[in-house]
Amino acid sequence: MNDKAQALIHVVEDDVNVAGLIIATLERFGYQHAVFPSGGEFLRQLRVQSPDLAILDLGLPDMDGMDVLQQLRKRHRFGLLIATGRVDTHDRVLGLELGADDYVVKPFEPRELIARVRSILRRYQPEPQPADLALRVAHFAGWRFEHASHRLISPEGIEDTLSLAESQLLSAFLERPNQVLSREQLLSGRDVSALDRSIDLRVSRLRKRFEQGGHSGKFIKTVYGAGYLLATPVSWS
């Protein structure tokens, strides 16, 4: 996706007025779009076509938006922006923990929506990499991480596939082990200010990946007031 006009955005929203506002905003800035008034219709469409980004309402008529979010992150990798009228901070934090890239609270200004859409789309654009970098495999604390496929393999050989955000975060740690990394460094210097408030949640979620199966994720350490540190040697092959 090299051009915003090529970006396809799915709008999952049952409120006709809100959906109309989002559509008008997307059209004004040159984005393609498709609208789904229910979670079920959206999930069925994903069997044949995935968008570059989805704008997801949490209050859908047929299922809770959190359920839709959980199903998405198990099977798909594309940008996800929550659009919610819920004022409870817990819901927004939970959405980020479940894998949303950002959220916007209704009512919102069109330019705020577009700013967040652009930020997420930039994050999902593939970065040009030398062939030898893309094919590298990291070995650390008995684990193996395959950079190209985002596969994380446990000491017992159990495979798991990380989300794009988790893969980028782990790669930042593995590139600079035993160094304190600030939140800005963990975001790889990208223009992703919308993610700043959720980097702690992403680190927590990455730790939980390592804790599955009775393992410890304690080698990702919090350095209070400074950032985070991967406290284990790393070798590359």
From TrEMBL:
A UniProt-annotated Pfam family: Response_reg
Residues found modified as 4-aspartylphosphate: 57
Domain OmpR/PhoB-type residue range list: 135-232
MF term (GO), any: transcription cis-regulatory region binding
GO biological process, one term: regulation of DNA-templated transcription
Superkingdom: Bacteria
Keywords associated with the record: DNA-binding, Phosphoprotein, Transcription, Transcription regulation, Two-component regulatory system
Stretches assigned to the Response regulatory domain: 8-121
SMART domains: REC, Trans_reg_C
Name of the protein this chain belongs to: Transcriptional regulator
